[in-house]
Amino acid sequence: MRPKxxxxxxMRDAGLNLVLDFCDADVxxxxxxxxxxxxxxxxxxxxxxxxxxxxxxxxELLDAAGSQLKVVSNHAVGFDNIVVPDVTARGIxxxxxxxxxxxxxxxxxxxxxxAAGRRIVESERYIRExxxxxxxxxxxxxxxxxxxxxxxxxxxxIGRAVAKRAVGFGLRIIFYSPSAxxxxxxxxxxxLDELLxxxxxxxxxxxxxxxxxxxxxxxxxxxxxxxxVFVNTSRGPVVDQTAxxxxxxxxxxxxAGLDVTDPEPLPLxxxxxxxxxxxxxxxxxxxxxHTRDEMARLAAENLIAGLKGERLPHCVNPEVxxxx
Length: 324
Ligand code: DGY
Prior knowledge:
By secondary structure, the protein is an alpha/beta fold. The chain has twelve helices and twelve strands. The radius of gyration is 21 Å and the shape is elongated.
């Protein structure tokens, strides 16, 4: 009998076709995610589940699914939507999609560093609002990159890919990431405070966990240089958005670029949307055709391996195998 699976959103054919070839798949093809109640109903009795970063996977969902569930495959590299101990406690492997979205996400981080630093979005709005009357020596001035210092918080795959790009822009690169080694000429800082003191641009690349939730708070922002640019492409809750709003509004930092917010979608009445010096994108770090094909393929490969009882190619909780 073919395994029964639920795929929580219609993903790209590169992965979806693999799933359809191997399983009886129920694929959620609506634009909005299933509500919690619908999701709990959909996973009932499945052998495998492909979750999106918008689906919370916890004890309640696992209980609703039932004890036959063999694998949870997350269509994302981040997995803060999953309560990992709840899944591990049941001996179920969790898959994710590392590596293939590194370049796409680093590109967006760099796009935001430039967009916020050089006021790209504000300048575009300036034209559309009919404000462009002439060229002026002091019109829409931003921050240079060459010769300035970029501070990278979290020097994993994506942080290092940002460093690689920064070399070409003539930036001096420093990073804070206790367990990482220097690469691309980046200098390791012993403390976050030291990084913030020296950086003209700060880009955050940490996972969301208890230690990083609201890491970017009033204290963090107060340690940045007055003309510094802040960028976040990791997870929204890493930033205390009220503190960021206050800092941007009072011009205590120059500008910010966010690909992720808290919550997502960002409500239209968010004060951040009233600021000229804040560029906000709707979590498009990995949104390129090739990258999304690869994410779908990896999510499918993890799912199918789990259904066959094989080790997942990319497993978040490999300790489940130690017990078997
Ligand atoms: C991920 O995979 O964690 C990304 O945030 C999706 O873009």
